[in-house]
Amino acid sequence: MRANIKKNGLKRVVVVGCGLGGLRLARSLRNSGYQVVIVDKNNYNQFPPLIYQVASAGLEPSNISFPIRRIFQGYKHFYFRMAEVKAIDAGEKAIATSVGPIHYDYLVLAMGGTTNFFGNKNAEQHAFPMKTVVDGMRLRNHILETLERAETEEDMARRQKYMNVVIVGGGPSGVEIAGALAEMKRNIVPRDYPDLADKMHIYLINASDRLLKSMDEKSSSTAEAELKNMGVHVRNGWRVTDYKDNVVYIDNGKTLESSTVVWVSGIKANVVEGVPEGSVGHAGRLLCDRFNRVKGMTDVFAIGDQSLVEGDPDWKLGHPQLAQVALQQAANVASNIVKSDNGQEMKPFVYKNLGTMATIGRRRAVAEIGSARLGGTLAWLLWLVVHLRSILGVKNKFFVLLNWMWNYFNYMQSLRLILK
């Protein structure tokens, strides 16, 4: 198959993965005199922070996705290949893909991460991850299907199994999906399924001693109090050891029956063959120097969830796997590629923490910006503005805002469709 493109005398930067980081890097190289080839297994960019709203029937998948080819229309010397990357051939300076080899002068790995089940094969097979738009759609369909089954189930024990939702992971994703499902329980289930109005139970299982471990203790306690007020059963200090036959097993000996387990308990980097064994660190992250160059490789960079930058005294265990890290690393790597070719000194990556936030529900959120600790309506409005600005496409921004406004007033959106 033909994957290569004529270089026309230009140096080529191949970017693997068009997520938040890969997209930022490619855009940063516009008008820089490079040929840019973007490789992704999907033909769209997705906005991960709002996947939980797809899963809870708050948004359509198309609202947070945007065609990659549409993004780069009008860009000179930009090419896209929808393909899966199989391996890196460092000697040939090429990547092997499902559509053929693609050679590079500079290679940037921005493949992100996938759900970390920590070796639990049963959970990996039966629980629902929430990393992609496809994951969100699968979870949405499943939740709606279980409600339909519960509506017609005469066996009370089996009905309760359908009505119990277990969320594993007390980070931002776990808190946000728990809040979204709690609002569904409060505002949608009584209307659509009146016989099930008081049957739904949402459990948030957190192995740590508090929610939102990466945030301040005040933010953690605010989030937990809000979730409990919304009817979520928060269980701190519980670690899931297994999930089989619709039973969740906890390390303290307790069990929970549930046909819906959402696993958001951590991530691990996506792997690619051809990287030296000594260059792979914790959870599959690629060990990089301060310039995001992969250890033991030439002209190969890694950014975002896939990278683990060594040598930063402020982040000895590596930078957090957050969107802002990927975006800042992408901009810095793009700048350093240009500087390197111009004989200028490259700039080491320094992470600037712009703040952390998590939404819990309508007028419920927590946000940390510098020394400020915000909660309630102000944090919620700030969360809305930040995320709305980050969505690609004017049309998508409009429909997301319209959905949010409509949901705010009446929760009668018509998105609860089971689409196979």
TrEMBL record:
Enzyme Commission code(s) on record: 1.6.5.9
Broadest EC class assigned to this enzyme: oxidoreductase
Pfam families: NDH2_C (PF22366), Pyr_redox_2 (PF07992)
Protein origin, superkingdom: Bacteria
Membrane-spanning intervals of the chain: none
Segments forming domain FAD/NAD(P)-binding: 12-330
External alternative NADH-ubiquinone oxidoreductase-like C-terminal domain: residues covered: 354-408
Keyword Cytoplasm appears in the UniProt entry: no
InterPro entries, per the entry: FAD/NAD-bd_sf, FAD/NAD-binding_dom, NDH-2, NDH2-like_C
Molecular function GO terms recorded: NADH dehydrogenase (quinone) (non-electrogenic) activity
Reaction(s) the record says it catalyses: a quinone + NADH + H(+) = a quinol + NAD(+)
Family: Belongs to the NADH dehydrogenase family.
Protein's recorded name: NADH:ubiquinone reductase (non-electrogenic)
Organism: Sodaliphilus pleomorphus
Lineage: Bacteria, Pseudomonadati, Bacteroidota, Bacteroidia, Bacteroidales
